[in-house]
Design goal:
By secondary structure, the chain is α+β, with helices and mostly antiparallel strands. Helices cover about 50% and strands about 15% of the residues. It starts with 6 loop residues before the first helix and ends with a strand.
Amino acid sequence: MSATMDRAQVASHAPSEGLRPHVSSFAQPTNQPVVRVNGVTLTDRDLLREEYTIFPYAKQHNGSVPQEMEPQIRRGAMQMIIFEELVYQDAQRRKLTVAPDKLQKAEADFRQQFSDPKEYQQLLAEEFQGSKQLLREKIRRSLLIEELLKSEVDGKSQVPLAEARAYYQKNLSHYQYPETFAIQTISILPPQKEQKPTPDQLKEMRKRADDALKQAQATKDPDSFGLLAEKISDDDYRVMMGNHRAVPRAQLTAQVVQALLALKEGQITGLIQIEQAYTIVRLNKHSLAGTQEFQDVKEQIRKELKDKKVNQLRAALDKRLRQNAKIETL
């Protein structure tokens, strides 16, 4: 999580009728101490800011948060404010500094987030006793945390292209994709699946299926086939214009695969009978199995590897900083 100063960090960071999820609310801050880190006291206001950073959606609903999520959010927020305080203290020990022009720009950027000057003044009064100097120190603190993390985490988590390529070659199976058929269907199903159809019902089904096939063969494109599926198909895919998108070959029955292999893209099968149901299938695209090229996945790989390194480096930094720290939960 970035330590960069933003409104969430500074400012304490239409349901349907019927059953509603149980919700609770983040407690309103009273500046009560919640934890002491090497003698520095952090309050429930600091905790609330981080809770809103973790779950910003609650701010739109007067602090409401799903009840089952609240303990987890609180634990995460507590861990984060302790971690950031330890990082800040380490930055001070290292005598890191913030250039005046960088601090000035950060202050200006922060203030520009407020569309209404009164909102800014309200925050200044509530959070910093009206003191711009206290706000400036808070911003300076965030910049120092950011600077140390940039050095200890971001700077050490970069993934060279060669590393990404080596990972790709070692894990080629991750980037293989199966043979797929992008299809649309129209199905004629028995009236009641749990009961065996009567001879008359079977006769009626066949008549419906023959008529559906004639109408399907008259369609010219996926849209017209889909509109027909919406109108006459009995399967659940009718609400999606009969579209199954790309289905792996292994998930299709042998009968359907055999029929599709005989088609060109854009063509329609005849009636396919599977037990007592009839299906008509339109082939939109047939894609053979293959492997994604490195060029197409290199940025995805680099991001995944970087994220993993970031987590490892942050965890190692947290462990190191906690070794000799005195942390008292209040």
